[in-house]
Amino acid sequence: MSIFDPTSFIRQHREVPAVCCVCGHTVSLRDRDEATDGALLDSTFLDDYRLELLLLDRASALFARFPDSRHALKVGHEQLQPKLFPRTSCDPDFEAALAADPPLSKFLRRSMFHLPSLRKGVMESIEQLSKRDFSTIRCPVCADGVLRLQIGWLLPAL
What we know:
The protein is mostly helical.
């Protein structure tokens, strides 16, 4: 098994599906140059980071609503070394609030991270990618948004 290289992956495809981040317009892009592929990858990563930041902010808000909770998900995502502080307890109120947001529940249950550190890294990535020039991939319909690769297209075949 080799390491997935998104640049090589996109270059292997003559045609790639793209969507506008603002209006949802879809288009199939052909005959792209390397600069366009790079902009598409960066806009895709930027949009994905923004979506991840929304989840992280929802997690922060949930954790703030239950400051005294020792629920395992809260303990695990707020402490760098949760095994040093293993005391967790059931928290039916926290669990009910988490159940009210299925995407957040799925995200927290399937991901291992330290919330403050990950949020900082995502913010830094957003800041850096936001400096990129996306003028070559402006949406042809709304002109306000930029194109990104369709969600799920960039995943390597398993």
